[in-house]
Amino acid sequence: MVDNRPAKPHLRGMKTKDTDILIVPGYKGAGENHWQSRWANRLSAAKLVEMGDWHKPVFEDWKANLIAAVHGTEKPVVFVGHSIGCQVIVQAAKEFGKPVAGAFLVAPPDVANPSIRPRHLLTFGPAPTDPLPFPSVVIASRNDHFCAYNVAEDMAASWGSLIMDAGESGHINGESGHGPWPEGLMVFSKFMNHLKPPLVQ
Fold it and tell me: Could you write out the DSSP letters of every residue in 37-89?
Protein backbone atom coordinates (compact mmCIF):
# COMPACT_ATOMS: atom_id res chain seq x y z
CA MET A 1 0.00 0.00 0.00
CA VAL A 2 1.32 3.40 -0.99
CA ASP A 3 1.10 6.15 1.63
CA ASN A 4 0.11 9.31 -0.21
CA ARG A 5 -0.04 11.47 2.90
CA PRO A 6 2.34 14.45 2.81
CA ALA A 7 5.53 13.86 4.67
CA LYS A 8 5.84 15.52 8.03
CA PRO A 9 8.33 18.36 7.99
CA HIS A 10 11.63 17.60 9.70
CA LEU A 11 11.89 19.76 12.78
CA ARG A 12 15.46 20.87 13.31
CA GLY A 13 16.53 22.56 16.49
CA MET A 14 19.10 25.29 16.76
CA LYS A 15 22.75 24.59 16.12
CA THR A 16 25.40 26.03 18.38
CA LYS A 17 26.84 28.03 15.48
CA ASP A 18 23.50 29.86 15.23
CA THR A 19 23.66 31.01 18.85
CA ASP A 20 25.78 32.81 21.40
CA ILE A 21 26.05 30.50 24.39
CA LEU A 22 26.59 32.44 27.61
CA ILE A 23 27.89 30.25 30.42
CA VAL A 24 26.95 31.78 33.77
CA PRO A 25 28.82 30.38 36.80
CA GLY A 26 27.70 30.56 40.39
CA TYR A 27 29.31 31.28 43.75
CA LYS A 28 33.13 30.84 43.62
CA GLY A 29 33.02 30.76 39.81
CA ALA A 30 33.96 27.85 37.59
CA GLY A 31 37.51 26.58 38.03
CA GLU A 32 39.38 24.94 35.18
CA ASN A 33 38.07 21.50 36.17
CA HIS A 34 34.45 22.64 36.48
CA TRP A 35 32.19 21.36 33.70
CA GLN A 36 31.22 24.93 32.79
CA SER A 37 34.83 25.86 32.02
CA ARG A 38 35.29 22.66 30.07
CA TRP A 39 32.17 23.36 28.03
CA ALA A 40 33.34 26.93 27.39
CA ASN A 41 36.57 25.54 25.94
CA ARG A 42 34.82 22.85 23.94
CA LEU A 43 31.92 24.78 22.42
CA SER A 44 33.06 27.34 19.86
CA ALA A 45 29.98 29.51 20.37
CA ALA A 46 30.35 29.58 24.15
CA LYS A 47 31.63 32.36 26.37
CA LEU A 48 32.07 32.22 30.14
CA VAL A 49 30.58 35.40 31.58
CA GLU A 50 32.66 37.36 34.10
CA MET A 51 29.94 38.11 36.62
CA GLY A 52 31.98 40.02 39.19
CA ASP A 53 33.47 39.08 42.55
CA TRP A 54 33.16 35.30 42.67
CA HIS A 55 33.69 34.97 46.42
CA LYS A 56 31.71 38.00 47.62
CA PRO A 57 29.05 38.21 44.94
CA VAL A 58 26.96 41.37 44.73
CA PHE A 59 23.60 40.71 43.10
CA GLU A 60 23.26 44.11 41.43
CA ASP A 61 26.74 43.81 39.90
CA TRP A 62 26.14 40.28 38.67
CA LYS A 63 22.81 41.21 37.13
CA ALA A 64 24.27 44.28 35.38
CA ASN A 65 27.22 42.28 34.05
CA LEU A 66 24.93 39.57 32.70
CA ILE A 67 22.71 42.10 30.93
CA ALA A 68 25.82 43.74 29.46
CA ALA A 69 27.05 40.36 28.22
CA VAL A 70 23.72 39.77 26.46
CA HIS A 71 23.90 43.21 24.85
CA GLY A 72 27.32 42.26 23.51
CA THR A 73 26.02 39.27 21.57
CA GLU A 74 25.12 39.14 17.89
CA LYS A 75 23.09 35.94 17.76
CA PRO A 76 20.20 34.55 19.82
CA VAL A 77 21.41 33.76 23.33
CA VAL A 78 21.32 30.40 25.05
CA PHE A 79 22.20 30.48 28.74
CA VAL A 80 23.99 27.72 30.61
CA GLY A 81 23.67 28.61 34.27
CA HIS A 82 24.86 26.94 37.45
CA SER A 83 23.90 27.63 41.06
CA ILE A 84 23.24 31.34 41.77
CA GLY A 85 24.07 32.03 38.14
CA CYS A 86 20.67 30.45 37.41
CA GLN A 87 18.97 32.84 39.81
CA VAL A 88 20.57 35.86 38.14
CA ILE A 89 19.37 34.64 34.73
CA VAL A 90 15.84 34.26 36.05
CA GLN A 91 15.87 37.59 37.91
CA ALA A 92 17.00 39.44 34.77
CA ALA A 93 14.85 37.46 32.32
CA LYS A 94 12.62 40.36 31.30
CA GLU A 95 15.41 42.92 31.04
CA PHE A 96 17.73 41.54 28.38
CA GLY A 97 16.20 43.46 25.49
CA LYS A 98 17.60 40.97 22.95
CA PRO A 99 16.36 37.61 21.68
CA VAL A 100 16.91 34.71 24.08
CA ALA A 101 16.47 31.22 22.68
CA GLY A 102 16.56 29.29 25.94
CA ALA A 103 18.14 28.62 29.31
CA PHE A 104 19.77 25.46 30.68
CA LEU A 105 19.63 25.88 34.46
CA VAL A 106 21.69 23.50 36.60
CA ALA A 107 21.30 23.19 40.38
CA PRO A 108 19.57 26.49 41.14
CA PRO A 109 19.87 27.15 44.89
CA ASP A 110 17.06 27.91 47.30
CA VAL A 111 17.83 31.59 47.89
CA ALA A 112 14.87 31.98 50.23
CA ASN A 113 16.15 29.39 52.72
CA PRO A 114 17.51 31.19 55.83
CA SER A 115 19.76 28.18 56.49
CA ILE A 116 21.69 28.61 53.24
CA ARG A 117 25.41 29.22 53.64
CA PRO A 118 26.96 31.59 53.07
CA ARG A 119 24.01 33.68 54.18
CA HIS A 120 25.05 36.32 51.66
CA LEU A 121 23.43 34.19 48.96
CA LEU A 122 20.05 35.24 50.37
CA THR A 123 20.63 38.60 48.65
CA PHE A 124 20.08 36.76 45.34
CA GLY A 125 16.52 35.87 46.30
CA PRO A 126 13.76 35.23 46.64
CA ALA A 127 13.42 33.46 43.33
CA PRO A 128 10.88 35.01 40.95
CA THR A 129 7.68 33.07 40.41
CA ASP A 130 6.77 34.43 36.97
CA PRO A 131 7.05 32.16 33.92
CA LEU A 132 10.22 32.72 31.93
CA PRO A 133 9.73 34.35 28.51
CA PHE A 134 11.90 31.67 26.85
CA PRO A 135 12.15 27.85 26.96
CA SER A 136 14.11 26.43 29.86
CA VAL A 137 15.08 23.24 31.61
CA VAL A 138 16.08 22.80 35.26
CA ILE A 139 18.52 20.03 36.19
CA ALA A 140 18.10 19.25 39.90
CA SER A 141 19.74 16.82 42.30
CA ARG A 142 18.09 14.81 45.05
CA ASN A 143 20.84 15.58 47.58
CA ASP A 144 21.89 19.13 46.72
CA HIS A 145 22.73 20.83 50.02
CA PHE A 146 21.87 24.18 48.42
CA CYS A 147 18.31 23.20 47.48
CA ALA A 148 15.82 20.49 48.38
CA TYR A 149 14.47 18.68 45.32
CA ASN A 150 10.85 19.64 46.03
CA VAL A 151 11.87 23.30 46.12
CA ALA A 152 13.61 22.90 42.76
CA GLU A 153 10.42 21.31 41.44
CA ASP A 154 8.38 24.30 42.63
CA MET A 155 10.78 26.78 41.04
CA ALA A 156 10.75 24.90 37.75
CA ALA A 157 6.95 24.77 37.76
CA SER A 158 6.63 28.51 38.38
CA TRP A 159 9.19 29.30 35.65
CA GLY A 160 7.48 26.98 33.16
CA SER A 161 10.64 24.89 32.96
CA LEU A 162 11.00 21.21 32.23
CA ILE A 163 12.62 19.61 35.27
CA MET A 164 15.07 16.74 34.97
CA ASP A 165 15.97 14.52 37.92
CA ALA A 166 19.76 14.16 38.25
CA GLY A 167 19.47 11.63 41.07
CA GLU A 168 21.88 11.98 43.96
CA SER A 169 24.41 14.26 42.28
CA GLY A 170 25.17 16.80 44.98
CA HIS A 171 25.50 20.36 43.71
CA ILE A 172 26.56 19.12 40.26
CA ASN A 173 30.00 20.70 40.44
CA GLY A 174 33.62 19.66 40.79
CA GLU A 175 33.19 18.76 44.44
CA SER A 176 30.44 16.29 43.54
CA GLY A 177 32.59 14.67 40.87
CA HIS A 178 31.12 16.51 37.89
CA GLY A 179 34.21 17.62 36.04
CA PRO A 180 33.69 16.87 32.34
CA TRP A 181 30.02 15.86 32.96
CA PRO A 182 29.48 14.27 29.51
CA GLU A 183 25.93 13.25 30.48
CA GLY A 184 25.05 16.89 31.01
CA LEU A 185 26.48 17.83 27.63
CA MET A 186 24.29 15.16 26.00
CA VAL A 187 21.21 16.58 27.73
CA PHE A 188 22.21 20.09 26.64
CA SER A 189 22.54 18.89 23.03
CA LYS A 190 19.02 17.46 23.19
CA PHE A 191 17.79 20.73 24.67
CA MET A 192 19.34 22.63 21.75
CA ASN A 193 17.65 20.28 19.30
CA HIS A 194 14.26 21.32 20.63
CA LEU A 195 14.85 25.07 20.53
CA LYS A 196 13.53 27.36 17.86
CA PRO A 197 14.92 30.75 16.86
CA PRO A 198 13.26 33.33 19.12
CA LEU A 199 11.08 36.12 17.84
CA VAL A 200 12.87 39.43 17.66
CA GLN A 201 12.05 41.41 20.77
Answer: HHHHHH-TTEEE---S-SSS--HHHHHHHHHHHHHT-SS-EEEEEETHHHHHH
